[in-house]
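Pasting as-is:
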Amino acid sequence: MAELREVVASNRPALSDEDILLMVGEQLNDLDLNIRSKLAGMKQNAARGRMLSEALNALNNQITTAAGNQAAPLDLRAPFTYADEGGARVQTRLGEVLRQFGVTVPADAKLSETTIRDLRKAIEEKATSLRSEGETSQIELQQVMSRRSQLLQITSNVMASRNESRKAIAQNIRG
């Protein structure tokens, strides 16, 4: 967008409408790539959030099954499914998800109140972090889309101005 503003500010007549449109097209392509990248990251972030939510459900299911028996083992191999960024159902295991998010659990962990509290806290912290990343991504996406909109508006204004100048020149020549 800075390039287009420089061209407009310098009022260089050497650039044709086609040159300007090519330059704008390149900038739009860059912005569109940025938008697609941000959207893909947001989808992945949302899938990671769903994965964490399902991991918490798997943990809660084990707690329910243990029915208060704090000596019952925590099954890190407990399977569960979640929807990935494409919406496909993926089956994984509790321990794998916890490791992905940097949550370490001893292999012989029991479903004690302390273990449950610590795991829930760790999962909630990771979920909060993902939500924060998602909010930041949304703001960044809005900024890129705003820049894209501004570029289109500036281009439209430049082309309209150039067209009006041509009309005025033609009118002056006619007489």
